[in-house]
Structures are given as C-alpha cells and as structure tokens.
C-alpha cells in the first residue's frame, strides 16, 4: 500500500486547480500584490483569497502585509516533496517497463526458435 503523506496531499490539492497553477506561474517572476493577482483571473477578490489560502496552507506561497497592501511570493523549495515523489514514481515505472520489455523480447526470441 502506498505511503500516505498529508503534506504531499496538500501540495497536490493546491496544484490541482488551474487558477492556483496560474497564480504560481505569475509569482514565479516576482512577488505580486493580491489585487494584481486577482485582475487576470476574472474572479472576485474573496475567491482569489480562498485560492491564495490553499496555496499558503500547502506552503507554496508566503504572504506579507505592509499597510493595506498584501503581497504574495512563491516558496519554490515547497515543491521539492512533489519532485521527489514524481522521481520515485518515474523510477518505479521505468523499472517495470524495462522488465516488461525484457520479457517481451524473451518471448519473441523463443517464438522464433
């Protein structure tokens, strides 16, 4: 049975939504004010704030407040558990496919004989 990692689940949940992925892509360039993040989405500010809350809960962004301005910044190292998990899955499936390939090649060779 697969190991259940709640942090990984939070990360995948946060990354599952295209609006949140778009916000992360925008923040990859530089820290951005919440109002500037909300503009291109076409969503109302409270909806964008809920998306930001999910991203912050997953540790993917940090927010700071100066006066009345709230700014968000990406936390790139928060994606490391996702990268690690994906690398493990890739290695697992590549090994399985290599074994399948070897089996198919053996069967094909036996049929020729």
Could you characterize what this model shows?
It is built from five helices and three strands; from the N terminus they run H-H-E-H-H-E-E-H. The chain has helices at 6-15, 18-27, 34-41, 45-57, 80-112; strands at 32-33, 61-66, 69-74. With 113 residues, the chain is an alpha+beta fold. It has a three-stranded antiparallel β-sheet with strand order 1-3-2. Helices cover 65% and strands 12% of the residues. The radius of gyration is 21 Å and the shape is elongated. The longest helix has 33 residues, at 80-112. A hairpin with a 2-residue loop joins strand 2 (61-66) and strand 3. The mean pLDDT is 92.
Q: Secondary-structure map with pairings?
A:
Blueprint lengths: L5 H10 L2 H10 L4 E2 H8 L3 H13 L3 E6 L2 E6 L5 H33 L1
Antiparallel strand pairs: 1-3, 2-3
| Number of β-strand runs | 3
Q: CA-to-CA gap between the ends?
A: 41 Å
Name the poorly predicted regions. none
Strand order of the largest sheet: 1-3-2
For the report, how would you describe the main beta sheet? 3 strands, antiparallel
Strand content: 5-15%
* Class from helix and strand fractions: alpha+beta
**Rounded mean pLDDT score:** 92
Features:
WH-like_DNA-bd_sf, HTH_ArsR_DNA-bd_dom, 3 strands, 3-stranded antiparallel β-sheet, 113 residues, 65% helix, alpha+beta
Write a brief structural summary.
By secondary structure, the chain is of the alpha+beta class. 65% of the residues lie in helices and 12% in strands. The model has no long low-confidence stretch (mean pLDDT 92).
């Amino acid at each position: 049975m697969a190991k259940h990692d709640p942090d990984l689940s939070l990360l995948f949940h946060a990354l599952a939504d295209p609006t949140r992925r778009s916000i992360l892509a925008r923040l990859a360039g530089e820290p951005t004010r919440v109002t500037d993040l909300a503009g291109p989405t076409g969503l109302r500010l409270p909806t964008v704030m809920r998306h930001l809350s999910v991203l912050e809960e997953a540790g993917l962004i940090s927010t700071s407040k100066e006066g009345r301005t709230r700014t968000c910044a990406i936390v790139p190292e928060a994606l490391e558990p996702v990268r690690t998990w994906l690398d493990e899955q890739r290695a697992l499936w590549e090994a399985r496919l290599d074994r399948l390939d070897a089996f198919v090649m053996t069967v094909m060779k036996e049929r020729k004989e």
